[in-house]
Design a protein that fits this description.
The protein has a domain of about 110 residues. The chain is mostly beta strands and about 675 residues long. The strands form ten sheets. A six-stranded mixed β-sheet has the order 1-16-18-17-13-12, with no helix packed on it. It is globular.
Length: about 675
């Protein structure tokens, strides 16, 4: 029972989320078309739109009355395990940029899941400039061969914190988070970068809620926000005892009954920094909010769509769902939003079975097809268990392939938990399961997934690393073609040639104890007999590419890939500590991989320090943590390593370090 009590204390699992269509113009929303009459001929949808705004308010109130207690609405979402949003594997898209060469050919771009669908990141380039978002500052740097010139900086202070951005032509969109009292606020900043030496803020927008993620295709951004009820001044018990708590609960129920849409739907404030004009209001029209057939929480997930090529963030469409949403995946045709359903923890006690877990542990997935700068709800479905992130999903010929693990934590079914590959197909307003294969990695969880055409690659791990090769050519009958068991695991898989996969992860011993960053080269040309043909291990190290694919840079035209690296070792016998950080340059050949160099920002090599008068003790010339490399960008004949202390410059052909430009 201790296990159950712990889970109950952690929170509630909510479900279902996404967005539909809207015909919002500027700032405020108006009712969009009924789904049945929408641009996709939508059916009797699994998500339902309310006939009247009053019905939506009644929905929120009715379910909130069941959740409110003596301290208000204290329950928060807990969407299951957090693992450190496609088609075929995405190579760098070849897109022309005026005067800057070709993206993916003359310079590298963000490593994304789906070719043609950009993802936000901390570094963007147009081939002649680097735009970097670090330390809550946006910096523009001109690139001319090996010469770097910092042109301008926008510094943000206060409680706003910006972590990601998108670049579209001369426009940069920053996405960040701030606080208003005890409530979270999404902050969007549209930056005019037409003159990189004079960056200027064009518009700002603040929205109640938490930023989830965004995708951009052809200049159209689809941005997902999750918001919670606001504006309630809860009554708390006036003293101890059951009576005081009951009285406070009844008072809070009355507060719920008297609530308005302002309490349930996100509010926005937008400012035009050029004209000074300001607008505000409710982000969503009540007619454009959907609800799943089963209650899925009191949060509201909003999908905003706006065209950066046209009016920027001044004009948008937005639809919402009365539910939660945490994982998004964007293909070139649709946006998918996944979340876990409510779990009846009372069922999953110490005597809970695998069947109980399979019934309760489900991920709901909602598809929203693109229609220009709009999105239209097309159907919902579910798969058993939980997803390990956006890479678990892949759209192919209209079908959605999904990899999931029943019980990733092993809390109830540690030995019998398994992973699945499920294929869903849109049909009459639902995503219907048309094929599934299970039994993957008994007692383990998924660490990495990659789809290449009609083949899926799944890595599971607990003590060994089975790499499964799954044939998806017949979506109604997915089959496991081959399996490879090795020590350690890959957390990210990247295609590096015909029938070759590169895995980045951790080596491990026979007990499953990780030992350091591992690069593995897999030959999967024979799907029935996958083989690891080479590997490199860096003892005690780890790479950000293990949990963030955007940190990985592929430059296979020169036979190289790059990934950030860090190691911190403590030698108990000698009481010495060794630290190293930088970017690993890994050369990939047809049958081998090699470590060509470690590119460093200011460090000259690993440092060892210790106490006392030992002769090999060293002092760092500066804070070593500032020398960490976050991203690697290739432009022309040079490699640039971007870190907290500046940009390292390295010759691509020799990997020789030729300079470090420190931030001003």
């Amino acid at each position: 029972m201790r296990r159950l009590s712990l889970l109950l204390a952690m929170a509630l699992v909510l479900g279902a989320c996404a967005a539909g269509t809207s015909n919002t113009t500027t700032g405020s929303t108006t009712a969009g078309p009924d789904p049945i009459d929408g641009p996709f001929g939508l059916y009797a949808a699994a998500l339902e739109r309310f006939d009247r705004c009053e019905d939506l308010l009644d929905y929120y109130v009715e379910h909130a009355l069941d959740q409110v207690g003596p301290y208000g609405l204290q329950g928060s979402w807990w969407g299951g395990p957090v693992f450190m949003v496609d088609d075929v594997a995405a190579e760098d898209a070849a897109v022309a940029a005026p005067g800057a060469g070709v993206a993916g050919v003359d310079y590298s771009v963000t490593n994304v899941q789906t070719e043609g669908v950009d993802e936000p990141d901390m570094v963007k380039t147009d081939g002649t400039h680097l735009f970097t978002l670090l330390d809550n500052r946006l910096l523009s740097t001109a690139v001319d061969g090996s010469e770097l010139t910092q042109l301008d900086v926008l510094e943000f202070r206060g409680q706003e914190w910006y972590s990601e951005m998108l670049l579209d032509g001369d426009t940069i969109l920053l996405m960040g988070q701030s606080w208003s009292g005890n409530s979270e606020v999404v902050t969007l900043v549209e930056v005019d970068a037409s003159d990189p030496s004079d960056l200027s803020v064009a518009r700002r927008m603040q929205i109640d809620g938490r930023y989830v993620s965004a995708r951009m295709a052809d200049g159209v951004v689809r941005l997902v926000i999750r918001s919670y009820p606001v504006g309630f001044e809860w009554v708390t018990p006036s003293g101890s005892g059951l009576r005081a708590e009951r009285e406070a609960t009844e008072a809070n129920k009355e507060i719920i009954r008297n609530s308005t849409f302002d309490n349930w739907l996100p509010y926005f404030v937008q400012t035009d920094e050029v004209s000074g004009a300001e607008s505000d209001g409710v982000l969503l029209d009540c007619n454009n909010v959907y609800a799943p057939p089963a209650f899925s929480g009191l949060a509201t997930v909003t999908v905003m769509s706006f065209d950066l090529d046209a009016d920027g963030i001044s004009t948008w469409t937005s639809d919402g769902v009365a539910a939660e949403g945490e994982t998004i995946y964007g293909s070139t045709e649709a946006l998918y939003v996944a979340t876990q359903r409510w779990v009846d923890w009372a069922i999953l006690n110490e005597e809970g079975s695998a069947a109980d877990a399979a019934e309760e542990f489900q991920t709901h997935i909602h598809k929203f097809a693109y229609a220009g700068d709009r999105v239209a709800y097309e159907g919902s479905g579910s798969v058993p268990g939980f997803l390990n992130g956006q890479w678990a999903m892949s759209e192919y010929d209209g079908d959605l392939r999904v990899a999931s693990t029943l019980d990733p934590w092993g809390w109830w079914t540690s030995e019998t938990s398994e992973s699945y590959m499920t294929v869903l197909r849109p049909s009459d307003g639902e995503l219907v399961e048309i094929g599934q294969v299970g039994g993957l990695g008994k007692g383990e969880r998924i660490y990495a997934v990659r789809y290449i055409g009609t083949t899926g690659y799944v890595v599971t791990f607990r003590q060994t690393d089975p790499l499964y090769v799954i044939d998806l050519s017949d979506p109604s009958n997915p089959t496991v073609e081959g399996e490879l068991k090795i020590l350690g695991y890959s957390a990210y898989l990247h295609p590096v040639g015909d029938g070759l996969l590169l895995g980045v992860g951790q080596d491990a011993d026979e007990r499953g104890r990780t030992e350091g960053t591992q690069f593995s080269l897999f030959d999967v040309r024979d799907p029935t007999n996958p083989q690891r043909i080479d590997q490199i291990t860096f003892d005690g190290g780890y790479s950000a590419a293990e949990w963030d694919h955007r940190a990985f840079t592929s430059w296979l035209q020169e036979g190289l890939v790059f990934a950030p690296f860090q190691v911190w070792n403590w030698e108990r016998e000698t009481e010495k500590e060794t630290f190293d950080t930088g970017a690993l340059a890994i050369r990939v050949e047809a049958d081998a991989i090699s470590h060509d160099a470690t590119l460093r920002n200011g460090l000259t090599g690993p440092f060892t320090w210790c106490e006392g008068d030992q002769p090999d003790c060293q002092q760092f010339p500066f804070d070593p943590w500032r020398a960490q490399v976050n991203r690697i960008v290739v432009i022309g004949d040079h490699v640039f390593t971007i870190g907290w202390n500046g940009i390292g410059v390295h010759v691509l052909e020799t990997l020789e370090t030729v300079g470090l430009t420190s931030w001003k």
